[in-house]
Amino acid sequence: MTELHTTFAALGDATRFAIVERLLKEGETSAGALHDGLPISAPALSRHLKVLRKAGIVEQRVSAQNRLYSVRPQAVETISAWTMSHREFWQKSLDRLEEALLREIRRK
Amino acid sequence: MTELRLERTLPADPQTVFDFVTQTKNLLKWWGPEGMHLPEHDIDFTKKGPWFSVMANAEGSRFKVSGEVVAVDAPKSVEFTWGWHDENDARGHESRVRFEVAEAGDGASTFTLVHSGLADEESATNHNQGWTSSLRKLERLAG
Questions:
Q1: Which of A34, A21, A18 has the alpha carbon at shortest distance from A69?
Q2: Which of B87, B80, B31 is nearest to B63 (CA)?
């Protein structure tokens, strides 16, 4: 389960935010490739990735000699629900209302 | 304070639409975005009185909103107050929602939703705009 406050705490750090941003832009990325674009040491990157994994934001996969990192879709879903505006809330709800009404009418 | 106004033409007569936006069994068919479910709720907009709903996503994040139905004029309109609760169940800023249903001809209805008294530029559960814009950016990248 992704706890909101854990997600927020993990993303509250600028470097970790930048890591997540890159993973979202570029998709699954190896630790080596991630390190090339960041002004931090490899051990620091590894610590940040550990925090992000513990918070359930990032997941790791081992392929050949590489550790590959990506953003968990569930974390994005949590963030998306958190930032949803009232407009989105109602528009999405009204889409469902319209569908429910159409189903009701076809049944009649 | 801002106001949000949404209008839809729906393919049913006003009475059917009114039933769909006020009765518990019908509200449960559409309340909240796809992917959310309602583990706890007491929503009946057919009569005055308190209401609440807890929405949850697949990951278990919970979002509670509550208020009070303050006016019912079947099958034309219903009005209720609206306030999100935070993680400690403290209720935040109160706003107001009004549903209006009108005949649109050919068996259709016009449904108007007015959400007024919104505190800031549209943030639903997070009132920290800095956070919201940062997270929205992540969300866009993910989409």
A1: A34
A2: B87
Collect all residues of chain A within an 8 Å Cβ-Cβ radius of residue B17: 101
Nearest to A57 by CA among A101, A8, A106: A8
pTM above 0.80, yes or no: no
pLDDT one-digit tens code per residue, B2-14: 788 899 999 999 9
What range defines the domain where residue B45 resides?
A: 2-142
Name residues 30-69 of chain A within 8 A of B (Cβ).
Answer: none
Q: Characterize the bridge pairing of strands B95-105 and B108-118.
A: antiparallel
| B42-89 pLDDT tens trace | 999 999 999 999 988 777 778 899 999 999 999 999 999 999 887 778
Buried b (16+ CB within 10 A) or exposed e, B38-63: eeebebbbeeeeebbbbbbbebebeb
B91 min Cα distance to partner chain A (Å): 16
The beta-carbon neighbor of A90 closest among B6, B10, B134 is B6
CATH code for the domain defined by A4-83: 1.10.10.10
CATH number at residue B7: 3.30.530.20
Q: Where are the domains of chain A?
A: 4-83
ipTM reported for the complex surpasses 0.85: no
- Domain total in chain B: 1
Write out residues in chain A with pLDDT < 50, as ranges. 1-2
